[in-house]
Structures are given as structure tokens and as C-alpha cells.
Write a structure and sequence with these properties.
This protein is 76% helix and 1% strand. With 274 residues, it is an all-alpha fold. The protein has a two-stranded antiparallel ribbon. β1 and β2 form a beta hairpin.
């Protein structure tokens, strides 16, 4: 059993991370995963738990938290009638397939490769957050047939490789195809559940070397990080939502885009060994 001297610093840092992720989720509507994955990586590696499988632990633990937060979000949005269940039903099979493929690929890659993938995709998400325009359109309705069959697995696949829910990719896809932003955000929360559940099941049975993995890790999911982050986000997300109503979140979204770009560049720097 690990000593408390090793667990306590980890718990304190995780509380700070969870609180920040909750505020950002409530304030900007961004998924916690895009904050949690690099934050988990920093905490675990700074405490000496770096390994070739550390990114798998970060991705899996982030996705585990997304199950809880997304379910809560879907329930809240559904009460307001904002969730588009038709989109969820028709996109779910492809997203699940993509998520499972994402777990299979992620489990076979070294941590440094996953860092590089997170860095590249983080730059793309950051650029869209910072430069995207609400009036941009690729079509007037959500894709069906072959286009949906290609896009839906890609959405699930890329989300798992970043350890994020449905918001970072799902919301842009839906708004680019004419879905109103509030409906897209609500429906993307459902994407998060569809992505996270099968991927976490896969990560729970993924064998991880006993050392030097973080204490109380089952498969690739770190239980203390999961519990602490969920507790803190449940506390702080409402405060972020109140701040969003008290101020204009658009400039803050630009600031967050810059922050995310810097985080992604740092991940790329570490992946390249610079």
C-alpha cells in the first residue's frame, strides 16, 4: 500500500485541477477532458510516475470522469428539451465503433506518441476556438449515409485519442452543419457518454505495468483522480455557469484558446524531446 506522503501531494494537486476544470466547463462550455489530460500528465509525471503507458492512464481517467459529468449534463439539458435524440440515435453506432478503435490504437502506442497526437489535435481545437466563426457552414443539415458513416467513427476515434468527450469535436461538427449552438452543446453531452462508456470499459481491462504507475490504478483508470475530480467539478461547475451569465464569455474563450494552444505546444515539445 502506498504511503500517505506519496498520496497526499497527488490528492491536493488533483483537487486544484478538478476545481479549475469545473469552473472552465461551466464558464466556457468546454469539456473537462481537454484540461484534465495534460493536467493529469503533469501531476503524475512530476510525482515520479512517468512511464511509456502514462498517457493511457491520463486518457482513461479523463474519460471515466466524462461518464459522470456528461450524464449529468444530458439530464440537465434534456429537462429543457435541448437534446436532439434523433442525432444521438443515428450517430451513436459509428461513434461507439470509433471509440473502440481509439482504445485499441491508444493501448498499442507509447506515451510519447500519444503526447504528440494530443498536441497536434489540441492545436486544431485551439485554432477553432480562437478563430472559428458562428456563421461558418459546411451544410444546412447533419450528414447522413456515407458522410455520417465516415464522420461518426472519426469523432469517437479522435476523442478517445485525446481523452475528451463530445464537445470539442461534436459541437463544431454540428454547428458547421446548421445545428443551433445550444442544441449542439446539449447533444454533444450525449456524445460524451457514448464515447466514454465503451472506451473506459476497454481501458479498465488494459494491462498497465505495476511500476511506476500512480497508486490505486485499476487497468488504466486512476481511482483517486477520478473521485477527486468528480467531487470538485460538481462543486465548481455551477460557479463557472454563474460567471458565464455575469460576463461575456467570448473574450474568455479566445484567452482559453491561447492557453490550450500553449498546452498543446508544450505536449509536442515533450513528445519531441525538446
Amino acid at each position: 500500500m502506498p504511503e500517505m506522503s506519496a498520496v497526499l501531494p497527488m490528492m491536493v494537486m488533483l483537487m486544484v485541477i478538478g476545481a479549475f476544470a469545473g469552473v472552465m466547463a461551466g464558464l466556457l462550455g468546454v469539456g473537462g477532458g481537454i484540461i484534465l489530460v495534460p493536467a493529469f500528465f503533469y501531476v503524475f509525471s512530476s510525482l515520479g510516475y512517468g512511464s511509456d503507458q502514462l498517457m493511457q492512464v491520463c486518457l482513461a481517467t479523463s474519460l471515466a470522469t466524462i461518464i459522470v459529468t456528461s450524464l449529468r449534463s444530458v439530464q440537465s439539458h434534456n429537462k429543457k428539451g435541448a437534446v436532439d435524440w434523433q442525432i444521438l440515435r443515428t450517430w451513436a453506432p459509428g461513434i461507439v465503433i470509433g471509440a473502440i478503435l481509439g482504445v485499441l490504437v491508444a493501448s498499442s502506442l507509447r506515451s510519447v506518441v500519444l503526447q504528440g497526437i494530443f498536441g497536434v489535435l489540441g492545436l486544431i481545437v485551439g485554432a477553432y476556438l480562437g478563430l472559428g466563426r458562428a456563421e461558418w457552414r459546411l451544410g444546412q443539415s447533419m450528414p447522413t449515409g456515407i458522410k455520417r458513416a465516415g464522420l461518426s467513427p472519426m469523432l469517437g476515434f479522435l476523442s478517445v485519442l485525446m481523452g475528451i468527450g463530445g464537445g470539442s469535436f461534436g459541437v463544431p461538427v454540428m454547428t458547421l452543419f446548421g445545428v443551433p449552438i445550444h442544441r449542439a452543446v446539449a447533444t454533444a453531452a450525449g456524445f460524451g457518454v457514448i464515447i466514454a462508456v465503451p472506451s473506459v470499459i476497454g481501458f479498465l481491462i488494459l494491462p498497465i505495468d505495476a511500476t511506476p504507475r500512480p497508486p490505486y490504478t485499476v487497468g488504466a483508470v486512476n481511482l483517486p483522480a477520478f473521485a477527486v475530480v468528480i467531487a470538485m467539478t460538481l462543486i465548481t461547475t455551477p460557479y463557472g455557469a454563474r460567471l458565464a451569465h455575469a460576463m461575456d464569455p467570448k473574450p474568455l474563450k479566445r484567452v482559453f484558446a491561447v492557453f490550450l494552444t500553449l498546452v498543446a505546444l508544450n505536449m509536442l515539445r515533450k513528445a519531441l524531446g525538446a
